[in-house]
Design goal:
Blueprint (H helix, E strand, L loop, with lengths): L2 H17 L30 H6 L12 H16 L2 H16 L2 H16 L2 H15 L3 H12 L3 H9 L21
Length: 184
Amino acid sequence: MRRAPLVLALLLALAAPHAAMAQDRPPPPPPGQAEPPPMPPPRPWSALSADEKDILAPLAHDWDTFPPQRQSKMLEKAQRWRGLPPERRAEIRERIERWQQMTPEERAEARRNRQKFQDLSPEQRARLHDAFERFRNLPPAQRQALMDRWQSQTPEQRRDAVDHLGPNDALPPPPDDKPPPGRP
């Protein structure tokens, strides 16, 4: 039963990007466009396979109240979960556990940061990803020194540092054999 909160959190995390779009009935297509595929039929809990029930167990109590479209999406997510390698599942579980331990303020900050990342251009995202990978590949002592320096700053100092951070201010430059993202 210890898995139930973890599985529920996983499914919610996977479904979060789609939650805003979830509706009982999709909007009508614009004039001249083909009709959307019909809504899937409802799948009562009793009709799910044992494997589906195991993965979706935290939702058992409410499953039959979900609209068919939501049931279908949750079943798709369960199918994807089944196909993930064990390492990826462990990684997701760890993220869920960290999320569950966050305060509401920390979660709100994480959501804001995710939105900021989504608002970046693809080139900016690539540069940020490259910087993160370089940070992750630093020797542990150097990585810890950077984290200690960051944690010793006040929130105002951190905001100022981020606002005025150049692409290589916090990390060593990329290796010479690899050009920066977006450049040949």
